[in-house]
Specification:
Shape of chain A: globular
CATH architecture of chain A: 3-Layer(aba) Sandwich
Distance between the termini of chain A: 8 Å
Helix content of chain B: 25-40%
Number of helices of chain B: 2
CATH topology of chain A: Rossmann fold
Largest sheet of chain A: 9 strands, mixed
Strand content of chain B: 25-35%
Number of domains of chain A: 1
Number of strands of chain A: 11
Order of helices and strands of chain B: EHEHE
Strand content of chain A: 15-25%
Strand order of the largest sheet of chain B: 2-1-3
Number of helices of chain A: 5
Structural class of chain B: alpha+beta
CATH superfamily of chain A: Class I glutamine amidotransferase (GATase) domain
Structural class of chain A: alpha/beta
CATH architecture of chain B: 2-Layer Sandwich
Strand order of the largest sheet of chain A: 2-1-3-4-11-10-9-6-7
Largest sheet of chain B: 3 strands, antiparallel
CATH class of chain B: Alpha Beta
CATH topology of chain B: Mth169, Chain: A
Radius of gyration of chain A: 16 Å
Number of strands of chain B: 3
Largest interface: A-B, 22 and 13 residues
Number of domains of chain B: 1
CATH class of chain A: Alpha Beta
Oligomer: heterodimer
Radius of gyration of chain B: 16 Å
Order of helices and strands of chain A: EHEEHEHEEEEHEEEH
Shape of chain B: elongated
Chain lengths: ~230, ~80
């Protein structure tokens, strides 16, 4: 199996992801420049965090039109896996691969913190190494991470159980106090209906070795690897 | 023909605007009591088009695809022929 990591001008978590997939987990990994269009060798494409194209206009709005994004649509339509983290999540919503949008944090601050998340489902390849309703701790670092969708879309997402992670307190209660940015229904990460594309504001790649203060993100990458090895 | 277009992008009413709320409270502290503040974007575009119809079509496409995100924003525009 192989990981591909998209690199836009302004991406800054691409190497962090590679450090996890290639360094810690010893998996073939390739950085893919935004002008490349061949993703055919990749099983998982990660759209990393950062400030693609300076986040001008709206976060992810310009990255969405990069040449590599058309190939990403094809990759996703084949049922292959896509993981969008932070700015990557914003790019995936802008491109229509995921529903909704990420808007300015409720309290206007850029938040750089560690937060508790409740894992809403563990039947996805991404989350199979977690327990259902397990509480994990991951870093967040964003100014526009408030998840928004219109009422009909939100209902659809909830009805289809597309919410993967919710901001919660330390014992898994989903409360307003535990919601750092005002996201509707405390949504921190969602999947598409097929379950092969997920987007999340928290950074699993920044919590994959003890030396950086947490390892709760590592299981997400391990889930992908073991899932793909079984399928192979 | 050359056109000068002005595009106004506003947050949909259902989307909270914390920046607008912050500005409103600043105005209140300055003793300007206003009912609401919503902050949007304003874009000026110079373009060439054969006629008004083509200009409208080009601007609609640009706004639908890139300038506004229909999930959270509405837009309207006006333009004048400058040459």
């Amino acid at each position: 199996m192989k990981f591909g990591i998209l690199v836009f001008p302004g991406s800054n978590c691409d190497r962090d992801v590679a450090t996890v997939t290639s360094g810690i987990l010893q998996q073939p990994t390739r950085l893919i420049w935004h002008t490349d269009t061949d993703l055919s060798d990749c099983d998982v494409v990660v759209v990393p965090g950062g400030f693609s194209y300076g986040d001008y206009l709206r976060c992810g709005a310009i990255a969405r039109f990069a040449p590599v994004m058309r190939s990403l649509q094809t990759h996703a339509s084949k049922g292959k896996y896509v993981l969008g983290i932070c700015n990557g999540f914003q790019i995936l919503t802008e491109s229509g691969l995921l529903q909704g949008a990420l808007v300015r944090n409720r309290d206007l601050h850029f938040i750089c913190d560690r937060v508790a998340l409740r894992v809403e489902r563990n039947d996805l390849i991404f989350t199979q190494k977690y327990q259902k309703h397990q509480v994990i701790n991951l870093p967040i670092a964003h100014g526009e991470g408030c998840y928004f969708a219109d009422a009909d879309t939100l209902k659809e997402i909830e009805d289809n159980q597309q919410v993967v992670f919710r901001y919660s307190d330390a014992i898994g209660n989903v409360t307003n106090v535990a919601n750092p940015n005002g996201s509707l229904n405390n949504i921190a990460g969602i999947t598409n209906k097929q379950g092969n594309v997920i987007g999340m504001m928290p950074h699993p790649e920044r919590a994959a070795e003890k030396v950086v203060g947490g390892i709760d993100g590592k299981a997400l990458f391990e889930g992908l690897i073991s899932g793909l090895l079984i399928n192979a | 023909m050359k056109y000068q277009a002005r595009i106004f992008i506003t947050l949909r009413p259902s989307v909270l605007d914390p920046a607008g709320t912050a500005v409103q409270s600043a105005l209140k502290q300055m003793d300007y009591h206003v009912d609401s503040v919503r902050i949007g974007k304003y874009v000026e575009i110079a373009l060439e088009a054969n006629d008004d119809e083509e200009a409208t079509q080009k601007l609609d496409e640009a706004a639908d695809k890139l300038l506004a995100n229909p999930v959270i924003e509405n837009y309207r525009f006006e333009f004048t022929q400058v040459a």
